[in-house]
Structure formats: C-alpha cells, structure tokens
Amino acid sequence: MTQQDVDDHRVAIAELASEYWKLLRNYDHVLAAAPENLRAGLTAQAKFGARRLVAILAGTGMRIETFDGVAYSVNLPVTAVNADDFADGVAPVIEQTLEPAIIFGTAAIKTGRVYLRASNQ
C-alpha cells in the first residue's frame, strides 16, 4: 500500500465519520418525535453509536472537533457559511457546527463548516 493509498483511505474515513456525525445529530429530531416508551432505547443506541465513532476514529489517530460557542478565527479548521455577514469588524462566535472538522495529529483531514453569530447576541 502506497502513502497515497493511506492518505486516500484516511480522507474516506474522515468523510464517512463526518456524515455519521451529522446523522447522529439529526437523530435527535427522531428522538423528540418518538413515543415516550421508545425514547430510552433510542437514546442509548445514539450514545453507543457516538462512543463507537469516537473510538473508531481514535484507532486511526483521528478525532472529531466541533466549535459551538467558540470565538471564530480564520485559524480554525472550518469554513463559515455566513462569513460575509461579518466583514465589518464584528467579532463573531460560532453558533452551530454544521459539519465537524476531522483532525489527524495536528492536521485537518476534513475542514468543518460552521454558522456564525455576532458575539454580543
């Protein structure tokens, strides 16, 4: 296996991890709509899935990073979908992580996507 193969596999795992993270986040909406008698089991299943995701990524040397509530900086491994709204010098804060960053060591394998809000809100 070449270094390029390893890099391609790592990128593919990072993409899959990001999609799985988004699926788990959207699963919260299913939980809210589920009958009360099913919620405990569904919640346990979601927590187990989240722990497995973290463990599997850790086994490959990767981790998921989210940035909700963090002051936005261009040095973060994210793209702000509404960055143009803050061109006037207002210091924005990350309101919501739309897609997590996937980090390997100190390098971002996959850049996250975030939504910003003004820091004084």
Automatic annotation (TrEMBL):
It comes from the Bacteria. This is Uncharacterized protein. It comes from Paradevosia shaoguanensis. The lineage of its organism: Bacteria, Pseudomonadati, Pseudomonadota, Alphaproteobacteria, Hyphomicrobiales.
